[in-house]
């Protein structure tokens, strides 16, 4: 059984995410790879006391890295773009 606190790794904050927050009331999280949308919706609504309207998830591929002649790859991760109900906010994103 997965705990709701283990589903979300951390918030993902970039310039593009801050524009999404201002224009569409959307926030972005890095989540576990095995998390589905239903589990994520229930976790966000109970943890942050907000209403979730929609969730879009995508898998981000790891980038290629090389050190000298050795090539490797960073590990990939999963991203969730969460649309909140109009008027709802998450305090963590308000300070950014």
Shape: globular
Number of strands: 6
Radius of gyration over all CA atoms, rounded: 15 Å
Q: How are the strands of the largest sheet arranged?
A: 1-2-6-3
What is the first-to-last residue Cα distance?
33 Å
Per CATH, the superfamily is RRM (RNA recognition motif) domain
CATH level-1 class:
Alpha Beta
Q: Could you give the order of the helices and strands?
A: HEHEHEEEEH
**Poorly predicted ranges:** none
Q: Helix/strand/pairing class, anyone? A: alpha+beta
Please count the helical segments: 4
Would you write up a description of this structure?
The protein has 96 residues and is an alpha+beta fold. It has one domain (4-86): Alpha-Beta Plaits (2-Layer Sandwich), CATH 3.30.70.330. Helices cover 31% and strands 36% of the residues. It is built from 4 helices and 6 strands; from the N terminus they run αβαβαββββα. The chain has helices at 4-7, 15-24, 37-48, 91-94, and strands at residues 8-11, 26-31, 52-60, 64-67, 70-73, 77-84. It has a 4-stranded antiparallel sheet. A two-stranded antiparallel sheet has the order 4-5. A hairpin with a 2-residue loop joins β4 and β5. The longest helix has 12 residues, at 37-48. It is globular, with a radius of gyration of 15 Å. The relative contact order is 0.25. The model has no long low-confidence stretch (mean pLDDT 91).
């Amino acid at each position: 059984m997965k705990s709701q606190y283990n589903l979300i790794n951390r918030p993902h904050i970039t310039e593009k995410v801050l524009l999404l927050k201002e224009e569409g009331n959307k926030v972005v999280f890095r989540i576990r790879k095995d998390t589905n949308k239903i589990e994520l919706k229930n976790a966000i609504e109970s943890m942050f006391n907000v209403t979730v309207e929609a969730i879009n998830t995508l898998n981000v591929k790891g980038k290629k890295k090389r050190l000298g002649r050795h090539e490797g790859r960073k590990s990939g991760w999963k991203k969730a773009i969460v649309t909140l109900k109009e008027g709802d906010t998450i305090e963590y994103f308000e300070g950014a």
